[in-house]
Write a structure and sequence with these properties.
19% strand; two-stranded antiparallel ribbon; TIM Barrel; 8-stranded parallel β-barrel; alpha/beta; globular
């Protein structure tokens, strides 16, 4: 099998230091978390921006500050900026970091409930809007899918020419209101994408490592990190993103695969 890409989502938009004191907010904290994650085996840093008080932002200047801090410590790492932002942000707000010189960004492919009264809106026109910007700037998208209908939407827009090859999917499973995170759910999504496409899996909370193992065993890639899960195991808070990456790496080795280097990741995803 091809080497396994490990993406680390170091902070997200919603998790806080009150939940885990190791969650990074400042550029220096994020740079250190990113560096240690890369040293442990991550080749992509999935990036949300936070202000020093922890509040989420899509301000491009804050993104730039964080990216510069990360690149000082690990200049070759692939930065994948989030266009998801935080709940309630407008399309214009969410697209702000796409004006920066980045290699990758997320492209959310459908609306999903997030439990309670929370919902994450991605209309068809939203998706086309983000895809058009990424196409113009030659930014590789990661097609984030929380449900089977999101995969179908991505493929429909691919056929219409709004979304371009190469196709790289991220199955985000276990979100309250989204698709469940059992093996059957993962396999359903995997079997719904073209054979030429690549895919990664992000399991939320307790599903992070079981889903990572399913993906590794089936030739896919994995995402771990504080955005998705704050625990190393039940009842044990992770002390850093590095610990989560190391655990993912152990699963890769267990199943006789190698961890993709940064250069191998660029080759696999067609970034070179």
């Amino acid at each position: 099998m091809i080497p396994c890409i490990i993406t680390c989502a170091i902070t997200g938009a919603e998790v806080t230091k009150s939940q885990n004191p190791a969650v990074p907010y400042t550029p220096d904290e994020m740079a250190l978390e990113a560096y240690n994650a890369v040293e442990a085996g991550a080749s992509i840093i999935h990036l949300h921006a936070r202000y020093d008080d922890g509040s989420p932002t899509q301000d491009k200047e804050r993104f730039l500050e964080i990216i510069k801090a990360i690149k000082l410590k690990c200049k070759d790492v692939i930065i994948q900026v989030s266009t998801g932002g935080a709940l309630g942000m407008t399309r214009l707000e969410r697209s702000s970091p796409l004006s920066l010189d980045v290699e990758m960004a997320t492209l959310d492919c459908g609306t999903v409930n997030f439990g309670g009264d929370d919902y994450f809106i991605n209309t068809e026109n939203d998706i086309i809007y983000f895809a058009n910007i990424m196409n113009q700037k030659n930014i590789q998208y990661e097609l984030e899918c929380f449900d089977k209908g999101h995969v179908d939407m991505a493929l429909r827009l691919f056929k219409k020419g709004y979304i371009k090859a190469p196709l790289h999917f991220s199955f985000v499973l276990g979100v309250v209101g989204g698709m469940a995170a059992e093996l059957r759910d993962f396999m359903f999504l995997k079997e719904s994408i073209p054979e030429s496409a690549t895919f990664s899996v992000a399991g939320i909370g307790k599903y992070e490592f079981p889903l990572a193992e399913f993906s590794i065993m089936n030739g896919g890639h994995v995402r771990v990190g504080f955005e998705d899960n704050l625990y190393l195991e039940k009842g044990v808070l992770a002390k850093s993103n590095k610990e989560l990456v190391k655990k993912a790496k152990e699963l890769v080795i267990k199943h006789n695969r190698t961890v993709a280097s940064i250069s191998e990741t660029r080759n696999i995803l067609g970034l070179e």
